[in-house]
Amino acid sequence: MGKTKTAFVGEGLEEKPKKERKEKPQKVHISGLKGGQRIKVVEAEPSEVVVEETKEVKEEKKKVKAPKVRSKKYLEAKAKVNPIQTYPLSEAIKLAKETSYSSFDGTIELHIQVKKAGLSANVTLPHGTGKEKRIEIASDETIKKLEAGKIDFDVLIATPEIMPKLLPFARTLGPKGLMPNPKNGTLVNDIKKAKDFSANTLTLKTEKGAPLVHTSFGKVSMNEKELIENAEAIIAALGGTKQVIKAYTKASMGPSIKIAIS
């Protein structure tokens, strides 16, 4: 006979807690699986999202540079120049001399915008730049100095015979404008012609990728007539009004003055 349960009145039967049923994983049929093969489900961890800053955001975060503070002497000199006026060459050079506030004999500069980049020219100034240039004729002694890293000349003149010895130093001499070149007269066939080289010869060329030419053409101590003739020679060598768009002159320590090109 089976077992019977007896309960008294007023007492309830204690129910055994039911065992929690474990949910069986649902079977998923995937075509292509062979018998006995199973698929294990792996929960992926949330990936970290990396937000890259755009170029504009990075530029905004850059520190803003403080405006350049000019000296009292510069401001006084600049007050003498009308920034919207173009001055005839003679007046511009006179004003550049007057507004130079350096304690030394400053250099008079010329900054020119031409129509195209890649323009170059050679010019012999009628009165020089007021600075003595050290001219050296390339020799074996020159090679020894270059090997030692010593450059104590402003112009280097060479003959074709010694050029192969200078080629290893092209990366040093080239950027300084010291590599002998037939265009500027520093590469000569006869060494005797080297003595006829003029130290007043300038090589003019635009900046790399920009139609701008920067050069100097004298000292503040030079008289105005000499400076005018030097500046006229430079502008003419660059093509005059056909090539020159704008021109400015200034002392090495002084405000810029716009020149009327005519």
From TrEMBL:
Keywords: Repressor, Ribonucleoprotein, Ribosomal protein, Translation regulation. It comes from the Bacteria. GO terms for cellular component: ribonucleoprotein complex; ribosome. Residues 1-30 are annotated as: Disordered. The keyword Signal does not apply. Belongs to the universal ribosomal protein uL1 family. This is Large ribosomal subunit protein uL1. It comes from Candidatus Woesebacteria bacterium RIFCSPHIGHO2_12_FULL_46_16.
